[in-house]
Task: structure prediction
Amino acid sequence: MPQIRTDEISSIIRQQIESFDVDLHIDEVGTVLEVGDGIARIHGLEKAMASEMVEFENGSFGLALNLEEDSVGVVILGDYLDIREGQIVKRTGRVLSVPAGEGLIGRVVTPLAQPIDGKGPVDAPHLMPIEGRAPGIAERQPVKEPLMTGIKAIDGMIPIGRGQRELIIGDRETGKTSVAIDAIINQKQTGVICVYVAIGLKASTVAGVVDILRQNGAMDYTIVVSANANDPAPMTYVAT
Result:
């Protein structure tokens, strides 16, 4: 019968203890009490913050708006048809924010920066809150450089400066989208990053705009954010 060496056993146990590593990750979760028309009531998220994002089992996100004593009213940002009573909801610990970074350039994404162009995940490691504080007047640079739209009538009579807001007003089918697309195409090799936000349009219309931008090489510096006509109303709110 072999002799048991206690010092060797103690050494092995000591090595195992020193190399033992426990990666604990605790999530605060709640359960769905009821859901309907894009609104869900959640029980168990007592520490949820106002405007905090929560995540459902199906991967959809929600926005905590109504903080009651025993439940939380959540606006569902995404597909809510397969969310059922009793499903698990967990906190994210951050207010409504979206990924940001150069990885979004050339992509077509939802208002939550989720890709819908079939090109895989978006490489945008940074998060920016949607409801951010606007910089004060003293912090802003003056409008001192023109932004050429490529339309001579606008550039000659109503010049637009970088950093300036300009509203395009017109009835249906009067060419508002054409003006915006021409202005985006004209920013080639100027260093300007363009963001085209489509709200309430048909998916086919958005696909047509993306195709025009791609044919003219404008998707190399453009981000397309699409809240289609069949998307839930909260997604339109986020896009706005």
